[in-house]
Design brief:
The protein is mainly alpha-helical. It contains four helices and three strands; from the N terminus they run H-E-H-E-H-E-H. The chain has a three-stranded parallel β-sheet with strand order 1-2-3.
Length: about 150
């Protein structure tokens, strides 16, 4: 199980691992971000992720077909979709309820991008776009008192 609140170092270690993975990509991929178990994503965590996204933007943009974010709460999904509708996203982003829905959407995004870019590549796409995805990473849990809303 992933931690409810990752440490800053754990998050940095994971983002560095992810940065290296981006650079190995030579074909479209989609990301599925499962945050169902995340209790809190505070300003420090957002800062780390924001810095990572800015630093990794060229590597990410080259082959990213889209990102599915798994949110279990219907209320939080509605809020997230509302924010997405107002703000938009540079790459396709979909809020989903479960891993199966995320995988189905991700496969469709990769297939679409593969089709659109097939004339630029000479190799054939993998039979399953998720087959070479990095394994899930388990971060160490840090004991953090719950924050009040």
């Amino acid at each position: 199980m992933a931690p409810a609140h990752p440490t800053a170092q754990d998050l940095d270690d994971f983002l560095e691992l992810l940065q290296g993975w981006y650079l190995t990509r030579s074909s479209p991929y989609a990301m599925i971000v499962d945050v169902r178990e995340l209790d809190e994503f505070d300003g420090e965590c957002r800062s780390h992720v924001t810095r990572h996204m800015k630093r990794a933007r060229p590597a990410i943009a080259q082959h990213l077909a889209g990102t599915a974010v798994i949110l279990q709460s219907p209320w939080i999904r509605a809020v997230a979709n509302g924010v997405l509708g107002l703000v938009g996203a540079v790459k396709p982003l979909r809020i989903v309820e479960n891993i199966e829905e995320g995988q189905e959407w991700a496969r469709g995004q990769v297939a679409y991008l593969e089709k659109m870019s097939s004339h630029l590549r000479s190799s054939s796409p993998p039979s399953d776009p998720l087959s070479d995805a990095p394994p899930p990473v388990e971060l160490e849990r840090e004991s953090v008192p719950p924050s009040s809303p």
